[in-house]
Design goal:
- The protein is of the alpha/beta class and 372 residues long.
- It has 2 domains: 56 residues, DNA polymerase, domain 1; 293 residues, Aldolase class I (TIM Barrel, Alpha-Beta Barrel), CATH 3.20.20.
- Helix content is 34%, strand content 19%.
- It has 12 helices and 13 strands.
- The strands form 2 sheets. The protein has an 11-stranded mixed beta sheet with strand order 1-2-3-4-7-8-9-10-11-12-13. It has a two-stranded antiparallel ribbon with strand order 5-6.
- A hairpin with a 4-residue loop joins strand 1 and strand 2.
- Helix 7 runs parallel beside helix 9.
- The longest helix is centred in the middle third of the chain and has 16 residues.
- It is elongated and about 70 Å long.
- Bound molecules: S-adenosyl-L-homocysteine and iron/sulfur cluster.
- Iron/sulfur cluster binds next to helix 4.
């Protein structure tokens, strides 16, 4: 399979300097190019007036190839949410979602085209895996978000400022199944300019379906990113059906890896749980979940199921959801239900936006957060 073209964002600063030298240019040109891309979000040679005209286009062509072509861009929630569909160099399609809040701007990115994990309730899972994204293809989604915030036509200005403050790996794909590219992308997103975009590590969330060895590896990276674990059931019987990888790594192993992650990083782990009517929303499952999580550095995010086309499953009834929340809270575990902003025009600004929307607290009985 052909790989995406090499891009500056695939390389660390030292490698960029080497790449520039190999193109016959002085090494400091790598820093100049990096400042354009990571500091000003531009890859157009005409913007690079600090570079000699003769060198600009060659350097841009070699190190700043266009990786994403916009296929569609849809605004909803009065312009506060923007879903972008990208075509990659080989025709693969991926989505990203930009969400503006009063206090932050969150970009939800894809880490793979499709996903091979096969969760039956998930639209991405139903399509299977096309391929892993390169580091630069992931970073480019965030750079595109930065550009979108600066486009005058971008509808509502962000009261929270004009920078992407948070990145969540909750778009298409299983980030930990594309481990190397995702970790390098996290470094590019969080290294200060000119190395990267300078987003705080604590504002980056990596969501996983529960690949235990990869969670253990992530805990050793020395990163302080937030880990979100998509649990969806507190017992192996239900989880085996909802999450096929549970046949390899059981609930107990996944939670144990999550607690090790919290211990290694001091970061509160987020447990994602899509509430599905009559499948995983019984009161006893809420009690079991609460008892498994009680006393740990954890927060539960309940997500009303966003049914995929043709799905046999639907979201839990409101009363059932409320009871689920109370039972978890009764164990002293912090729990919120995600706001489903973006759903009213589901077909247009659909699932990705809905499921990546950060939580709005409906009810919490949280002990004060122990996160630093
Ligand atoms: N593969 C990773 C990250 C992408 S999915 C993971 O599964 O964690 C981001 C979140 O959306 C996960 O918690 C996922 O389980 C959830 N999700 C997927 N399909 C959904 C649906 N139809 N309704 C509600 N949440 C869904
Ligand atoms: Fe993949 Fe996550 Fe969807 Fe499961 S829920 S199929 S892991 S994207």
């Amino acid at each position: 399979m052909t790989r995406p073209p090499r891009h500056l964002a695939d390389l660390g600063l030292a490698e960029r300097r080497q790449a520039v030298a190999e193109l016959g240019e002085r090494e400091f040109r790598a820093d100049q190019l990096s400042r354009h891309y990571f500091g000003r979000y531009t890859d157009s040679p005409e913007d690079m007036t600090d570079l000699p005209a003769a060198a600009r286009s060659a350097l841009a062509q070699q190190l700043l190839p266009r990786l994403l072509t916009q296929e569609r861009s849809l605004a909803c929630d009065d312009g506060a949410t923007r879903k972008m569909l990208w075509r990659l160099f080989d025709g693969a399609l991926v989505e990203s979602v930009l969400m503006k809040y009063p206090d932050r701007v969150t970009m939800c990115v894809s880490s793979q085209a499709g996903c091979g994990m096969g969760c039956p309730f998930c639209a991405t899972g139903q399509a299977g895996l096309t391929r892993n994204l390169s580091t630069a293809e992931i970073v480019a989604q965030v750079v595109a978000g930065e550009r979108a915030l600066r486009t005058p036509a971008a509808a509502t200005p962000a009261p929270s400022g004009d920078r992407v403050s948070n990145v969540v790996f909750m778009g298409m794909g299983e980030p930990l199944a594309n481990y190397r590219s995702v970790i390098a992308a996290v470094r590019r997103l969080t290294d200060p300019v000119p190395g990267g975009l300078g987003i705080s590590q604590r504002s980056v969330t990596v969501s996983t379906i529960g690949l235990v060895p990869a969670i253990a590896r992530l805990a050793q990276e020395g990163l302080s990113v937030t880990l979100a674990v998509s649990l969806h059931a507190p017992d192996d019987e239900a989880r085996d059906e909802l999450v096929p990888v549970n046949r390899h790594w059981k609930v107990a192993e996944v939670l144990s890896a999550a607690w090790d992650y919290a211990a290694a990083t001091g970061r509160r782990v987020s447990i994602e749980y899509a509430l599905i009517k009559d499948i995983n929303d019984q009161p006893w499952r809420a009690d079991l979940l609460g008892s498994l999580l009680a006393g740990h550095l954890v927060h539960v995010n309940l997500i009303p199921l966003n049914p995929t086309p043709g799905s046999k499953w639907t979201a839990s009834l409101p009363g059932v959801q409320e009871e689920f929340v109370s039972r978890i809270a009764a164990h002293g575990v912090a729990v919120t239900v995600r706001d489903t902003r973006g759903r009213e025009i589901d077909g247009a600004c659909g699932q990705l936006a809905a499921r990546a929307t950060p939580p709005r607290t409906r009810r919490t009985a949280a002990p004060p957060s122990r996160s630093p």
